[in-house]
Model the fold of this input.
Amino acid sequence: METPKIFESEYRFCQILWEQEPVKSTVLARLCAERLGWSKATTYTVIKRLTERGVVKSEGAVVSSLISREQAEAARIDELVESTFGGSLPAFVAAFARGRLKEKDAEALRRMIDEYEEG
Done:
């Protein structure tokens, strides 16, 4: 199953949800007002939109996620690699590592690749 697209403002909403879930929609609306400056109506609109796309569920005024933080992060990275680097993971890693890669990081990457190749 492909992870539904989560736009930036929705991702910020999801970060609050992941910290609190399961959470009553009224509490979520209050948290979104405090942290994001959203009105209650905006929060409920986002809940409805994300429910329709299969990102969250709302049952009995309790909201919880259907997509994990890890799934959302992986989808965002996949989208970045595709849109910015033409789908090339090596090009992404090279751009990301340029000037930042330390020997311990390089060794950790080698171990990851070795473990991947070993299955």
